[in-house]
Amino acid sequence: MKPLVITIDGPAGAGKTTVSRILAERLGYRYIDTGALYRGIAWEAKQHGIQTDDLEGLENLCRTIDLRMEAQGGSMRLMSGQEDITQQIRTPEITMLASDLSAKPAVRACLLGLQQKLGAQGKVVFEGRDMGTVVFPNADVKFFLEASVHTRSLRRYGEMSGKSGQTLAQVEDDIRRRDQNDSSRALSPLKPAEDAVHIDSTALSIEQVVERMLTVISTRLKG
User: Fold this and answer.
1) How far apart are CA 199 and CA 222, in angstroms?
2) Which of 6, 91, 141, 150 is the most exposed place for a label (fewest CB within 10 A)?
3) pTM metric for this prediction
């Protein structure tokens, strides 16, 4: 089987992470959560007290940062230097900071090369916002996964299990703000690639979404 590069783009809470992990597992591929890389930079910026409008500080950070994805115990862990920051980056504060930083040219340039290096050998599923439009415009198979704002908010709220202290209404406000940030930024805005396969997961189970993707992939391989 040809080693494919598969991209799954879409807004926050559409189910990309879960779907991407399962799809990669079914195919025997690596799964790369590119959002975690942006969160990693956001976490480091916070640790160093670098503000989102401090372009020089961000450029210096990106020149020295050591972010890596490592496979451990069947899952991918995000490392910053020798520290595993996989859990530290999953907070509402880091999430929103990452959304703001993702519009900065220095940050996007920093991660572009890393992402392309990770995909060079194929057999990989990339999840993100601009994987099929900017990072891998020639990807073998591209998906754009979406769902209604309310559905996405319910899913994200359920994932948090009350640990964040946010109400459902606050989660929905965050989702709408991230949608606005991601789709309106001048640099690499969130949008489907022209050749992406659209899947609306509002009324679909995770298994149904994965099966649809596997059907598309199988058809592409036969063609």
Assistant:
1) 21
2) 150
3) 0.82
